[in-house]
């Protein structure tokens, strides 16, 4: 998946050139019936992957509109459009048309309103010959450019969590003994799912608000883990600003949806990139650490390296950077050997408050012996969080096999110990841990698309 970008088309009316903001396809419409004296249509390419892309459409109008119909021609070959928050969508050749859904038809004079979004197969290209309510926007003489959009601060969510949502119910979390407790000091066990490595998603499922809200309302999801790949080609180390921006979308969506979000620095050798991790978490903690639904995870799965000599010093540095700005949200600390040797970490814990330790299991590979290891860690006094698990082999289920009996033993053990969890992984594919089958839209509505261990995972989200 490529980083967020926009394209810009500058259109002229008469002798006057419209001064346009860099990074948007903006078209100035001539005045006509049912259209404003001037309007801007913003074609915002949210993300692009190998075979398709996602975009949002915004309209700015000089005069009020009570309803709208937008149409344009794509300059590239596009097919299979799936739009939301519209009626009457159609794609005939390169020509696309869509109308408002009623509730989003009103646009005040001077207002910019994001009115709908869509996914499509093909490459994003540009749009041309755009019309708003039948009025052609910009009649030639235009200058086209693809200048990058200037970086702007992400708007920080400040509204209270919506009524009836997990965050509204539980508030800010904290560690109480070997368990997690909510703002009322009652023990709480969060259950949810993890994203795929962001840069390897087949579509941007993790970044879609409608999909997150659908999981909350239909799967009873309480927590979502955003697994930001760090080391592979095309991941965070290659594009820090782009991937941090994608993580911020998930943070903002989780705040809007009222669910908890785990910000996962998804790496196997994060200790080799300590400076980058400190910068990443320091920045996000400064801007989002005030939120009650944030959980930080600085190291996904350390390899077989020393806890006391390598992993613990890394955690100390990153936790110190977080705590400079966020004194009390929970931090979940990765443990040796793919986050399995929790007993080793328990023997030499990191000093601090509201710290938990990562345990990962895959039920075809990890059985009672790993639960025994975890029991020793709990007896030593540390709190565990299973931020990743599967009813499969440890490779994520490349053979398509599931081991549900052993997975049920793990589910029962986590319930008995009040251990929160997120299951691997929200994406399409043949691995038995891929939750979705081909054709699953990014916006939810997945009743007919679950596969692999997904039915078992969903059944066990209480």
Key terms for this structure?
alpha/beta; five-stranded antiparallel sheet; 24 strands; 462 residues; Immunoglobulin-like; TIM Barrel; 10 helices; elongated
Share of residues in strands: 25-35%
Kindly state the number of beta strands.
Answer: 24
Say what the CATH topology of the largest domain is. TIM Barrel
Relative helix content: 10-25%
CATH class of the largest domain: Alpha Beta
Let me know the largest β-sheet.
Answer: 5 strands, antiparallel
Shape: elongated
The structural class is alpha/beta
How would you state the average pLDDT, rounded? 86
Tell me briefly what this model is.
The chain is an alpha/beta fold and 462 residues long.
Q: What does this protein structure show overall?
A:
- This protein has 462 residues and is an alpha/beta fold.
- The chain folds into two domains: 5-145, Sandwich (Immunoglobulin-like); 166-459, Glycosidases (TIM Barrel), CATH 3.20.20.80.
- The chain has helices spanning 166-170, 209-218, 240-257, 274-288, 307-323, 336-339, 342-346, 368-379, 404-417, 454-459, and strands at residues 5-6, 8-10, 12-13, 16-17, 39-49, 52-61, 69-74, 78-84, 86-92, 95-100, 112-122, 127-132, 135-136, 143-145, 174-176, 179-181, 191-195, 223-229, 260-266, 294-297, 331-333, 355-362, 384-390, 421-426.
- Strands 1-5-6-11-8 form a five-stranded antiparallel sheet, with no helix packed on it. A five-stranded antiparallel sheet has the order 9-10-7-12-13, with no helix packed on it. Strands 20-19-18-17-24 form a five-stranded parallel sheet, with helices on one face.
- Helix 2 (209-218) crosses helix 3 and helix 4 (274-288) runs parallel beside helix 5.
- Keywords: Carbohydrate metabolism, Cellulose degradation, Glycosidase, Hydrolase, Polysaccharide degradation, Signal.
- It is an enzyme of class 3 (hydrolase).
- It holds the Pfam family Cellulase.
